[in-house]
Design brief:
The complex is a heterotrimer of chains A (490), B (265) and C (443). Chain A is an all-alpha fold and 490 residues long. Chain A folds into two domains: 186 residues, no CATH class; 244 residues, MetI-like (MetI-like fold, Orthogonal Bundle). Chain A has 18 helices and two strands. In chain A, α1 runs parallel beside α7 and α12 packs across α13. Chain C has two domains: 132 residues, no CATH class; 223 residues, Orthogonal Bundle (MetI-like fold). Chain C contains 18 helices and three strands. In chain C, α3 crosses α5. Classes of the chains: A mainly alpha (490), B alpha/beta (265), C mainly alpha (443). Chains A and B meet through α14 and α15 of A and α3, β6, α4 and α7 of B.
Chain lengths: 490, 265, 443
């Protein structure tokens, strides 16, 4: 039974339960709704809630647990020799899954009967070719063990789905029946429903935590996997980045240092552009500009923040890069070889960060109490003296926090460096050379055709982990500084 | 000076320091000060009293052009200090404010050390020839602010760490350090406890020897204690101005009397 | 208080006039002016960048909306069809038929230009395939005059758009100077000309060698389905989470943890969300690659913090007196929130949601990782469910794909795509601004 049907039936049980619960409560009150403890709606909702929530919870847990169970059962049937042959469990399992999917497709298209899919054997037919006919391309011939595994995989999944459907529907009906039996006039339906809603609200709020856990697990597991294949010391202290393509051509050098260098270099240039311009804009807007100028200039500057990064990426690649080459390239100064360079990416990223720095600094400068300004003006200080000697020192922690937040943005920025910085990992001081960053390499390692189980792909997760830890550290530190700063003036 | 009423009551013969003629102040459409004319004497404490919102603080802020920092504020009429119109286009408010110091309602030390707080004014106005000179200026100012003995051992501690009364005396010392000729005080004791208030009031009395002090206060007792002259403001008008003793014992205007006896305010 | 009498009378103050500025004041005022100039310069530079960005987008992107087309009508006989189909190189044969038809029409108009099949190839690419597939699909049209509208190559397009002139043309395998004679002749004959490029808006992506035929349509649909997912997940979850945090959450460790989490998630680099999508949704949960559903899920997680932060601000802006009033007439806490606070906060919530959606619409990096760039979006999804689950591209991913193709003809398409993307964003933000203006309530 398709999954959507299961959901529809669940919904139907809930709707019917709602009606029945409502009418039963009304009937128990002799049709006089004033006798009821709660409004009739709540009795109906209570039944519907009991029908859906426990069933849905079981459904979700089952859906999450089933792949684990099936995988371990299938894996147990595979001979150990298969795994040790220079590949990993993940690789074999992905083969199994691919073949199983292929069989599914074949059955769905009618190219193979159900029984045939179950009884198919590598001795009697070329599975690869038969699956190829229905449009499922397999990398190599299918071994007997994999085919057996795939067949077991399909059977287990089919049984699992049936069991799940039955169980979920039983729970839904049971829940509805239980709640229905309690739908009498003095039952506190509203309190029950409200408790249920509160639980839903809490669950929604917990999505944020689940996301963080998801990120951590995704990164952590694959990073550990990577460090099994590639020594951690070489990753963290290696000064050479040279992944071999296709995972065959000898060992890859996967040192993170050149990427870190590129990342920091580009971010540094970006901050060099963004901080002075952003800070002075904020100062001008908050201290000098009249309401009219402020009303026009502030939103205009903030448009820069609303532009998607892909636009900046293209701007770097196609406009700023060639422009810089025409200024510093072979024909003039000869400093720049190609359009993609640290300078290109840094400059464009700096433009992107201007509104970020300026609006954060604006908030922070505005948080400096007017009494400070009055005190300074009262002593005969000019505006600029007041700003430089009173406001900025007072706002300094906040501004440092803002700059750190901007730095974290710069470090995590992807599209501008993917398009504007180049692809070569280099430890160089020349800002007109192409360099690459952590984010750019995450993209290139995961969008290439490397197998997910190879170190060349897994390294992306280690890079992601590095990036996550870096930005998280910066953010927490920056937010801490900014919060301390605000508390000072509250 | 041709106001006969005031001339009649004059006991002292201090020269006039600040002369305001027909001053009007507008906040946007709000007419905050209406036709105020007053002459404030040198070496005198003049108190501005009146119910809140009567314009006494606004008028005070006109005297060193602090109202310039508010966009919607417009000032009409003349205010002369030593005979020079401070709203003349040629006058630089920065120079004016060095001459007319100000102390605010809430103590507002900068988030710097005590020393730097006091040294700030002399530094920006270039009053010190060298470091030793600056040290002297700071010490003198702190002494005149009557706070030297309390802070001399911790000059480099942050000014924000002092108690409220100490902070306000620090602010007075800071204002004094730029060698002003007039000292404006906007309810300087409203954020202080009675003991700190007493200390500041005593200080004001001392300061009178060197400066013309103008103090805005909502406390009539304070006005009576510290001032020689009192001006009573009501709804943006200067209702009555004269010797403090006269105002409090023998007010001419019925509004003044109502306010002093507590019927309005 | 003996301190005060220390310096009362020493050095009778220099009675400097207020009217004359002393040297120091002049210097300080000069510094003041300079400082002010720095501020103005910073604003000017920021605005200059903005203008520069938009002019380069418009200048490079607008040509994508026009297209130079070769409009030609000719008849294919059954005999020609059969001969062509019997050959090994079938499309090559159609190519020849096309070239012949073209030269006949030029001759008929009395225009004499020498050209060969190569030149045609440089001008309109390889029309053989298009012609063949048309007749294979419509065999009944064989023998009747059929009008073909074939997109000219990007270089010819450039020649028409004025991006390139005879002087700047460098002979290459893409276009020769001599070809321009032919182009001029074709223009004189009314065979070649400019037209609004509807295909760019409604069409689908083309192969890597045909920038002229590339369209954004399919990826607009892909983005649309992604936004549906984002809207229907992030709005309810975000609002529910905000209601809990703002109205019900007790002050405890768990609440603190959630709060810290949300503010940190808002600052996690988007690429990390892409890794999450790849590892959890595709590898672990087995969702299909390149599917708008997965893209939508990832973008939902990214957008949630934005929506939660703005929703909480809107809820907090509803004065407590409203809650008290509801509680005072005997409503439960839950009822007071859902009946009174939430409706009053709704305009603010919607504004925040639209702005969050606009952010999500332009987000590219996570889409790269879930496989939206490797995929050539050649087809529209066939069914509604397919819109979510079938592999598709999305606007920003499509723009990236074009930008990273070798043929510079695609650059123009990428810029054009950016114009469309920005139009969407501007519209969404405008709606948000209007909402805010109309329903903004001051308490």
């Amino acid at each position: 039974m398709p999954f959507t049907w299961l959901l529809l039936i669940l919904a139907a049980i809930a709707v019917v339960g709602y009606q029945m619960g409502r009418s039963r409560a009304l009937k128990s009150a002799g049709g006089d709704r004033r006798v009821l403890h709660s409004l009739p709606v709540y009795y109906g909702s209570n039944v519907a809630m009991w029908a859906i929530v426990p069933a849905a919870a079981v459904l979700i847990v089952w859906l999450l647990a089933q792949p684990f169970f099936v995988n371990s059962r299938v894996l147990a049937t595979l001979p150990d020799t298969m795994v040790s042959e220079g590949s990993s469990i993940g690789l074999v399992m992905s083969d199994v899954r691919r073949v199983a999917d292929g069989l599914d497709t074949a059955v769905a298209q009618g190219a193979m009967s159900r029984d045939e899919a179950l009884s198919l054997s590598t001795e009697t037919s070329d599975v690869r070719e038969r699956l190829g006919d229905v449009g499922v391309a397999l990398g190599s011939a299918v071994s007997a063990e994999v085919l057996k595994g795939a067949q077991l995989y399909r059977t287990l999944n089919a049984t699992g789905s049936t069991l799940m459907t039955v169980l979920v529907l039983l729970i839904a009906l049971g829940g509805a029946a239980y709640a229905y039996s309690r739908s009498t006039a003095d039952f506190r339906a509203r309190n029950n429903v409200e408790r249920g809603i509160l639980a839903l609200l809490i669950a929604a709020a917990s999505v944020a935590i689940l996301t963080t856990i998801g990120i951590l697990f995704a990164l952590l597991f694959n990073t550990i996997e990577f460090f099994k294949l590639y020594p951690a010391a070489d990753f963290f202290f290696g000064t050479n980045w040279a992944p071999s393509f296709s995972g065959r051509g000898g060992a890859s050098d996967l040192g993170v240092l050149p990427l870190l260098w590129g990342t920091f270099y580009i971010s540094f240039i970006a901050l060099l552009v963004a901080v002075p311009i952003g800070l002075f804009s904020a100062i001008y807007l908050s201290e000098y500009a009249g309401p009219k100028v402020r009303g026009i200039a502030k939103p205009l500057i903030e448009i820069l923040a609303g532009i998607p990064t892909i636009v900046y990426g293209l701007f770097a690649l196609l406009t700023v890069g060639p422009l810089l080459v025409s200024m510093f390239g072979k024909e003039t100064l000869g400093w720049m070889q190609g359009g993609t360079a640290v300078m290109t990416a840094g400059l464009v990223m700096g433009i992107m960060l201007i509104p970020f720095v300026s609006s954060l600094s604006d908030d922070i400068i505005n948080a400096v109490p007017q009494a400070m300004r009055d005190g300074s003006y009262g002593l005969g200080a000019t505006k600029s003296e007041t700003i430089r000697q009173v406001i900025l020192p007072a706002a300094l922690p906040g501004i440092v926090g803002a700059i750190l937040l901007a730095a974290s943005r710069a470090i995590g920025e992807t599209m501008i460096v993917v398009l504007g910085a180049g692809a070569a990992a280099r430890l160089s001081l020349n800002p007109f050379e192409a360099m690459t960053t952590i984010t750019a390499k995450i993209v290139s390692q995961l969008t290439g055709d490397a197998d997910f189980a190879s170190p060349e792909a897994l390294v992306a997760f280690a890079l992601g982990m590095t990036l996550f830890v870096l930005t998280l550290g910066l953010n927490i530190f920056a937010l801490y500084i900014v919060r301390k700063y605000r508390e000072q003036y509250d | 000076m041709n106001d006969m009423r005031i001339v009649e009551r004059k006991v002292d013969t201090n020269e006039v320091k600040i002369a305001a003629k027909d001053v009007q102040v507008f906040y946007g459409d709000n007419h905050a000060i209406k036709d105020v004319s007053v002459e404030i004497e040198d070496k005198t404490v003049t108190a501005f009293i009146g119910p809140s919102g009567c314009g006494k603080s606004t008028f005070l802020r006109c005297i060193n052009r602090m109202n310039d920092t508010i966009d919607v504020c417009r000032v009409k009429g003349d205010i002369l200090i030593d005979g020079e119109d401070i709203y003349d286009a040629k006058v630089d408010p920065v120079q004016l404010r060095a001459k007319v110091g100000m102390v605010f309602q809430k103590p507002n030390p900068f988030p710097k050390s005590i020393y730097d707080n006091v040294a700030y004014g002399p530094k920006i106005h270039g009053l010190a020839k060298n470091k030793a000179d600056l040290d002297d200026i700071v010490e003198n100012a702190l002494r005149r602010g009557a706070i030297w003995d309390e802070v001399k051992d911790r000059l480099h501690a942050p000014g924000t760490g002092l108690s409220g009364g100490q902070q306000q005396r620090l602010c007075i010392a800071r204002a004094v350090a730029t060698e002003p000729e007039v000292l404006l005080m906007d309810e300087p004791c409203s954020a202080l406890d009675p003991i700190a208030t007493a200390q500041v009031e005593e200080l004001i009395d001392e300061l009178r020897k060197s400066y013309s002090v103008v103090i805005v206060t909502h406390s009539m007792q304070q006005a009576a204690r510290v001032s020689q002259k009192t001006a009573f403001f009501h709804l943006g008008n200067l209702v009555e101005y004269g010797e403090t003793s006269n105002i409090f014992t023998n007010p001419v205007d019925p509004r003044t009397e109502s306010y002093i006896t507590g019927r309005i305010g | 208080m003996t301190d005060a009498s220390m310096t009362p009378t020493d050095a009778p103050k220099k009675k400097s006039s207020l009217m004359a500025q002393d040297a120091r004041t002049r210097k300080r005022n000069a510094a003041e002016t300079r400082f002010r100039m720095y501020g103005m310069a910073a604003i000017a530079v920021g605005l200059l960048f903005l203008v520069f960005l938009f002019t380069s987008i418009l200048r490079s992107g607008l040509p994508a909306f026009t297209q130079t087309v070769v409009d030609i009508e000719f008849t294919l006989t059954q005999e020609q069809f059969d001969t062509a189909e019997s050959k090994m190189l079938k499309t090559g044969e159609y190519q020849k038929i096309f070239v012949n038809a073209l030269s006949e029409q030029l001759d008929a108009r009395g225009l004499d230009v020498a050209f060969d099949a190569k030149a045609i190839q440089r001008i309109v690419g390889k029309p053989g395939g298009t012609i063949r597939s048309f007749f294979l699909e419509n065999p009944d049209r064989i023998g009747t005059p059929v009008s073909f509208e074939l997109a000219a190559s990007s270089r010819v397009d450039g020649y028409f758009n004025g991006r390139m002139t005879r002087d700047t043309l460098v002979d290459s395998r893409f276009l020769m100077a001599t070809d321009l004679d032919l182009v001029d002749a074709l223009e004189e004959a009314g065979i070649i000309g400019g037209a609004f490029n509807w295909n760019f808006i409604t069409g689908t992506d083309s192969g890597v060698d045909n920038p002229g035929g590339a369209g954004l349509g399919a990826s607009v649909i892909g983005s649309f389905f992604m936004m549906l997912v984002v809207l229907f997940l992030s709005l309810p979850i975000g609002v529910a989470a905000s209601i809990y945090l703002e109205e019900f959450a007790p002050k405890n460790r768990w609440t603190d943890l959630i709060e810290v989490n949300i503010s940190n998630l808002a600052a996690v680099p988007s690429i990390v969300f892409g890794i999450l999508g790849l590892a959890v949704f595709i590898q672990f949960a087995g969702f299909p690659q390149s599917a708008p559903l997965v893209g939508g899920l990832v973008l939902t997680l990214m957008t949630l913090p934005t929506i939660i932060i703005s929703t909480r601000a809107s809820l907090a802006a509803v004065p407590p007196s409203i809650r008290d009033a509801a509680l005072g007439v005997g409503a439960s806490k839950m009822q007071s929130v859902f009946h009174h606070v939430l409706p009053l906060a709704m305009p603010g919530i919607l504004t925040g949601t639209i702005i969050g959606l606009a952010q999500a619409l332009g987000e590219t990096a996570p889409l790269l990782l879930i496989g939206m760039v490797g995929f050539v979006a050649r087809e529209y999804p066939e069914t509604f469910v397919g819109g979510f689950t079938d592999a598709n591209s999305a606007m920003p991913a499509q723009i990236y794909t074009w930008a990273s193709r070798a043929d510079p003809g695609f650059y123009e398409k990428a810029w054009g795509g950016i114009i469309i993307l920005l139009l969407f964003l501007i519209t969404m933000n405008a709606i948000a601004v209007v909402l805010r203006r109309r329903f903004e309530r001051r308490w």
